[in-house]
Amino acid sequence: MRIGLFATCLGDTLFPEAVKSTAVLLARLGHEVVFPPEQTCCGQMHVNTGYQREPVPLVRNFAEQFGDPSIDAVVMPSGSCAGSVRHQHEIVAERYGDAALRAGVATVKTKTYELSEFLVDVLGVTEVGAYFPHRVTYHPTCHSLRMLRVGEKPLKLLRAVDSIDLVELPEADSCCGFGGTFAVKNAETSTAMLQDKMRNIATTEAAVCTAGDSSCLMHIGGGLSRIKSGTRTLHLAQILSSTRTSPYVLTEAVR
């Protein structure tokens, strides 16, 4: 397949290794990965904050960049951005777009996937040749869990990783407290939710907490670093791209 890779804002600016790992993984599975160079933000943060008209140019650009018929699928290491493209773009286009935008959004929507659902649902694989000999716990992010409903797909992929010690996260489906601008507008509530999440992570004694969204990992990772927990965060793509011949070198977290 010819796969268009969407980096996301956080991936581009703060977590490029997660994006690179996604490309490496998909290429290792035998697919051509292309990166439309004019891609920008998907507009999720605008819509989530109540500004639905403002992201029209962003939605249009996304549809133009990834609407190329030669691109069979659009994949991104982010449940929240995939959810935005599949759900919010249609809302924006219907309310504030023209016929061309609505058509473009409809075309791209049907071929857009978060990484784990693309691997499991489209490619039909759970064993991707990964090797990661560390104790890991998984946090299911809100958008992937509730909007995309990826369910057990990330866990199926993790369970198939060679030498991994995967431990269940207590109260896994509880929000970490990030929520984009929610963490800014409701800082005290966000911090309290994060403390609950970190407390549950601590009980697993995991070396790594992984997830499918860099935004949640940024929030959780920042908290874990401040309390010197000894647990670090790592995107799911980075674990899945690690192999015996080219393993991910896990640096020790601050204690």
UniProtKB/TrEMBL annotation:
Residues 4-85, 136-220 form the Cysteine-rich domain. InterPro entries: Cys_rich_dom. It comes from the Bacteria. PANTHER family: LACTATE UTILIZATION PROTEIN A, UNCHARACTERIZED PROTEIN YKGE. This is (Fe-S)-binding protein. It comes from Streptomyces yanii.
